[in-house]
């Protein structure tokens, strides 16, 4: 009987610790996704400027070169463009429907890009991409600050709560 109790206590401790690590991971993932989106926008800017390919093709190429989490946005945008939506509508729809670690304020910043994509000349699109990158840099700094504060807290909190429950059950 005592052996089963020890196993259950270890399981409770382990589960609480894992929950703490999972909660902390969402902060790290947001920073990672924001950085990945910034890299994707750099690629977009370069491809618009130098290749002069259609934006749908550029979106497809980007979706294959970046992480799958952010790449889904570009892939969905490509699919919507092929379904005869404008580039701006496709981008906004894909941002809203794709499940990422972005907060709503991140999505709103990225949606502003849809106002100019495919509607202006190359220089207009590039300047809008650069403006969006500037706003993303601010969001990355905020996310890193929040991450550094909350990541350790949730990890330790999960472990401490698990330990407290184990002590209470002893």
Give the mean pLDDT.
Answer: 87
Low-confidence runs: none
- The string of secondary-structure elements, in order, is HHHHHH
Rough outline: elongated
Number of helices: 6
Structure overview:
The chain is 84% helix and 0% strand. With 170 residues, the protein is mainly α. It has one domain (2-169). The radius of gyration is 21 Å and the shape is elongated.
Q: Summary?
A:
The chain has six helices and no strands.
Write the layout of secondary structure elements.
Blueprint: H1 2-50, H2 55-65, H3 68-82, H4 87-97, H5 104-112, H6 122-169
Question: Which labels suit this protein?
Answer:
single chain, 170 residues, mainly alpha
């Amino acid at each position: 009987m005592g052996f089963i109790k020890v196993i259950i206590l270890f399981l409770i401790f382990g589960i609480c610790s894992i929950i703490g690590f999972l909660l902390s991971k969402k902060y790290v993932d947001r920073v990672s996704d924001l950085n990945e989106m910034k890299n994707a926008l750099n690629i977009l800017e370069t491809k618009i400027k130098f290749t002069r390919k259609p934006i749908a093709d550029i979106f497809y190429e980007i979706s294959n070169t970046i992480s799958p989490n952010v790449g889904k946005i570009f892939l969905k945008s490509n699919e919507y463009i092929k379904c005869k939506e404008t580039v701006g509508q496709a981008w906004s729809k894909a941002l809203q429907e794709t499940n990422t670690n972005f907060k709503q304020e991140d999505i709103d910043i990225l949606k502003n890009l849809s106002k100019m994509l495919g509607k202006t000349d190359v220089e207009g699109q590039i300047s809008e991409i650069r403006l969006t990158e500037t706003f993303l840099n601010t969001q990355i700094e905020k996310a890193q600050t929040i991450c550094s504060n909350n990541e350790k807290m949730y990890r330790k909190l999960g472990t401490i709560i698990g330990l407290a429950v184990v002590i209470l059950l002893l």
